[in-house]
Amino acid sequence: MLDSIRILTDVPASSDAHVARADLDAARQRRSLQQQAQRRARECVEQAQSEAQAIRAQAFQEGYANGILRAAENLANGLLESQTLGLQLRKDLAQAARQLLQELLTRVEWLDEMLERWLTERSDTGAPLQVVLPARCKPQGQALRLRLQGLWPGALVLDYQPEERYVFRLSDQLLEFDIESVCQRLEPQLLARLGNLPESVRCLDQASMMRLGELCSGFGTNSVGGVE
Predict the structure, then answer these.
(1) Residues 179/111, Cβ–Cβ less than 8 Å
(2) In degrees, to the nearest 5, what angle opens at C-alpha 141 toward C-alphas 139 and 146?
(3) Could you give the CA distance from residue 72 to residue 80 in angstroms, rounded to a whole number?
């Protein structure tokens, strides 16, 4: 279209030519239109380049942001899973500590030692010693009676109950030993002492290390593809 516009230089050069004022004005107008068209074309090209650059920058930023979001999501999921594993580990550890205490407190040796200490402070051998044991001890009733008679020379009354509790009564003196209550009281103390264990005992085993490695292996890997 621009090539079809006549400009001032298109007018034939001739000394005899008579250029009317209207032709000069038309040539100037065509020249101005051509300059405006060229300027507008440059502006359109510059605007297109600027928009293309802005689009590329926005795409880069969006890809980078998406990569960060994916990495953060992976990290959050991993931390949540590791926290869940930690809670489960503490739960299992507390259960193991509780079972250990129950096993220790239900041993016959513990009963002998506890009763012997209590009887050393009692001198009324004329009164009968009443003993109430958990029902699970009933199959060993005869053996327990012999052991108790070795600790107490006086009369002995042996009975059983369904609760996990030992009850000793001598005259107006009473001793009760509730295994569950004692376990609940001693469990936090036992768990608190785990920090004093040797380093080798508190280290993770190979399976736990592999599991943690799997959790951390995905952190940020998906974000690499989102930023180019």
Answers:
(1) no
(2) 145
(3) 12
Alpha helices in 106-138 (DSSP H): 108-120
Beta bridge mates, 157: 130
pLDDT in tens, the chain (228 residues): 445 444 445 545 544 445 466 656 556 666 766 777 677 767 766 776 676 676 666 666 666 667 666 766 666 666 667 667 667 767 776 777 777 766 766 676 777 787 888 888 776 667 888 989 888 888 888 888 888 888 888 888 999 999 888 888 888 888 887 877 777 777 777 777 666 666 665 565 566 666 656 655 554 444 444 444
Q: In the 8-state DSSP scheme, what is residue 125?
A: T
d(CA 192, CA 176): 27
Quickly count: other Cβ atoms within 10 Å of residue 179's Cβ. 18
> Using CA atoms, how far apart are residues 200 and 50, in angstroms rounded to an integer?
63
- In whole angstroms, give the CA distance from residue 164 to residue 136: 9
Sketch the domain layout of the chain as residue ranges: 19-106+199-228, 107-188
* The architecture CATH gives domain 107-188: 2-Layer Sandwich (3.30)
Give the separation between CA 5 and CA 49, rounded to whole angstroms: 28
Tell me which residue of 106, 105, 112 sits closest to 186, measured CA to CA.
105
